[in-house]
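User: Run a structure prediction on this.
Assistant: Running it now.
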Amino acid sequence: TKSDHYITGVTLEYSPRHWLMNRLSVGYDYNNTNDQNVLPFGYYRADLGELWWQTWAQKLITVDWASTLNNTIGDNFTSAFSVGAQMFDSRNETVDVNAADFSGPGEPTMMVAALRSITGDERLRVVNAGFFFQEVFGWKDRAFITAGLRVDGNSAFGQNFGLQPYPKISASYVLSDHSFWPKNLIQTFKLRAAIGESGKAPGAFDAVRTWDPIAGSIISGNPEPGFTPAQLGNEDLGPERTREYEGGFEMSALDGRVGADFSYYYQRTFDALIPVTYPPSQGFLNTQLENIGKLRTLGYELKLDGTFVRTDNLEWHARMNYTTIDSKALDIGGQTYTVNSLARSYVVQGLPVPAYYGKKVMNPNAYADPIIEEDQYLGSPYPTKIISLSSDVTLFGRLTAQALGEWQLGGHLLNAVGYQNSRKFTYAPCYAAQEKMRSGDLSTVTALERVKCSWTTGVRDYDWWVESTDFFKLRSASLSYQLPTRFVPGGKSASLTLEGRNLLTVTDYQGTDPETTDTRGNLFSRRDYYVFPQSRTFLLSLRVSF
């Protein structure tokens, strides 16, 4: 794999008067990647060799303009009126080629192969543009009210959709500015609340009917061109709209040594974008995005930050984040929508979005024949609670140790690797149960093991392999040392850092990794199916400032 990534941008600011500010930012992001997978001439599985080659290029152009008019009204009131516009132009190009049967040994190219084919050529361009208005009204630098409106247009909308407006309003109040506030205990305390709407656009071609080109039957030695149905299309496809209500507070105490930030949020999603599988009899096998019903998500976030020790030679900081997520399909017309039947992923009214749904063993831990019920909730593909802890310790102002750990609870994953290997008798967690079933002694084989580890065709099913993914991961740990400047002539500062990532995973999940999935890019489907989990990596870096 070879990648070239270039990012640049320019920002212009102009203030003809102290009360008028103008800003224009333009950015350009270019990323080009070449991937090659080579089986050389003489390879044991392909004697004459094979070559797969993919080129992928992305160009992203962003333009952001904003002007703000500041005004002071009397001694107590302030106003800041802003107007602006944004544009995102994303372009992707991907080409896939295959080659096989090389003429001889050596580093192969496409031209030394007897068989050459182009298997993919995709070009996508999506333009999203919008403009906004915003007014921030302040009183005594203590109370603030913000009202705004954003209007977006997107090239991926269906023909029956135009510009989409998204309003917002928020307020905050600093209680700790009052004389009655006990500043000796809590130095700052601010309340805040907000309500607003946002939109999520569909993909580039999700609204249009598409067809895949194919080579038909060969007549007189020449292949005939043709096409097959790909995507159904939907002229009424529009953005997914989410209205969110949020409230919370921010505070600091003990001279800034302790800080807290709490938020409660409630989201209602209208016209949710969900990939739906339609009957194959219509001729279209791919899923089609549809604006379906109403969803809701609620939860809260708590952030705590503390400095436990602060001396000339020792500082110790720690942070904790606690997040809960509770989603549910409120109204989808009472139907059950299939997202991915192979991944057992569905949208079901009254259940989390998405949900694993199917057959369930009702007595999993009993030493008895399994009791199986159809159309049962099997679990949420995503966690419902996330807890992260991080800490850093600095000695003598030079040596710093940092660590970040995270718990994710309430999630599930379809362990398709376990399913496939159990039927080949190569899955270690099933060895004991399969040996007992061979001998005919089922007295110590649970009902769940009898279906999961069975080699009988009629019993095997993906449904039994939806497993809990509760886990703890040590995300990262690092050790950094600020080098004395005498070791870097002409330098202002220098640091040497050793960092490790994905260092430890503790879980009862029996697949490859509780976070892996072979359906990346599809947030409504997760499956552990022959995908390498995230690697454990180590990074040694030297940073110098001049």
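Residues 431-439 form the longest helix (9 residues).
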